[in-house]
């Protein structure tokens, strides 16, 4: 594990200390949890994008011949 140094305004730090105490945890643990969540969610999103691209490449769906003109879509 690596150490990380942050600069935080005093008022923010005091507020976060209170939140951490109310939750029965530490600021360090809260920051670690938040950073882990960000990394995990970003990884999940990247895997989901890759899966969608793979599905679109391997899909048997075919787009038929376009038999309409753009203006036809807006006729009323």
Defining traits:
single chain; mainly alpha; 3 helices; 66% helix; elongated
Along the chain, the helix and strand elements come as HHH
> What shape does the CA trace take?
elongated
| N→C terminal distance | 65 Å
Query: Average pLDDT across residues?
Result: 90
Supply the number of helical segments.
3
By secondary-structure content and strand pairing, the structural class works out as: mainly alpha
**Total beta-strand segments:** 0
What portion of residues is helical?
55-70%
Q: How can the largest sheet be summarized?
A: none
* Rg for CA atoms: 25 Å
Q: Which consecutive residue ranges, at least 5 long each, have pLDDT under 50?
A: none
Strand content: under 5%
Description:
With 76 residues, the chain is mostly helical. 66% of the residues lie in helices and 0% in strands. The chain contains three helices and no strands. The protein has helices at residues 10-23, 27-58, 70-73. The longest helix has 32 residues, at 27-58. The radius of gyration is 25 Å and the shape is elongated. The termini are far apart.
Summary?
The chain is mostly helical and 76 residues long.
Secondary-structure blueprint:
Layout: H1 10-23, H2 27-58, H3 70-73
């Amino acid at each position: 594990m690596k150490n990380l140094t942050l600069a935080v305004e005093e008022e923010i730090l005091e507020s976060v200390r209170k939140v951490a105490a109310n939750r029965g945890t530490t600021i360090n643990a809260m920051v670690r949890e938040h950073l882990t969540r960000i990394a995990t969610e970003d990884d999940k999103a990247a895997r989901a994008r890759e899966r969608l691209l793979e599905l679109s490449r391997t899909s048997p769906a075919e787009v038929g011949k376009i038999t309409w003109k753009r203006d036809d879509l807006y006729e009323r």
